[in-house]
Amino acid sequence: MRSSGLARIALVTLALCGAALAVRFATPPVPEPPPVPDPPPVALPSDGIMAEQRSRGQQAFDPRDMLRRRGRGNLRQPAGPHEFYFTRAIYSSGWGWSRWATDYPKADRQFMTVVNRLIDIDGSPYENAVRLDDPRIRDFPFLYALEVGDISLSQAEIEGLRNYLLAGGFLVIDDFWGTWEWAAFEQQIRQVFPERPIVEVPIEHPVFNAVYRIDEIMQVPAIGNFWGGRTWERDGYEAHVRGIFDDKGRLMVLINWNTDLGDAWEWAERPEYPLRFSTFAVEMGINFIVYAMSH
Length: 295
Fold this sequence. Notes:
By secondary structure, the protein is α/β, with parallel strands linked by helices. It has 9 helices and 7 strands, in the order H-H-H-E-H-E-E-H-E-H-E-H-E-E-H-H. The strands form 2 sheets. The chain has a 5-stranded mixed beta sheet with strand order 3-4-7-6-5. Strands 1-2 form a two-stranded parallel ribbon. Helix 1 packs across helix 9. The radius of gyration is 18 Å and the shape is globular.
């Protein structure tokens, strides 16, 4: 990243310094855990899962294929242990190839650069992508998924995600737009929780006040749309934050619809991308992390 990009990231950080620079989660002290080895390489889909994907008309998914196509080598493993990993969900798509990897890994890294400067948490500075059907997903209480308008979950992914969320995991959805993509996503998430409603999350909810006070939901545009003079895509003219709650009132799934926080993280260093969007996206993201780690 050029020095001008680092300076821009510093501006985003300074813009957020009105709140406390150090936040400690209100949890009782626990004994220091023993050292643990680095996690194993990303597990690849089993032959059965790949056969199921082919039977549904999907391309058999191998995360390494996406990286080869982009010339990036292997998926980076989290060097650890750390207190927090920004974990991105690897999910199966329909016709779209590797939609889960949009903005990856630049958005993840730049966001964590700011997170580690603003809150007192030992966060891994690198990306961490985990499949929904990988048992290791339980190691990470925060999960991020985007471009879900073309998500097409296998049965193993449905069960893995449901069990993860009921066990205390927190899923943040981002960057999908309009009524068609909402209908496609809703059909899929209903397979995970057919019995639970999707509701608007009120602005008074603690997730909007965990560190930064959010008084209104801003629509954050992708950088290309901003250059085109608009903040929306398709017929997604109004940003929403919706959610799915468990029986005790804990927010399990937070759905950012008609907005693109990830693009604001990815392009925070670009002087032509408005600082207000990157600042808002970082505030929201930090609130999500603190809520996930304290609930």
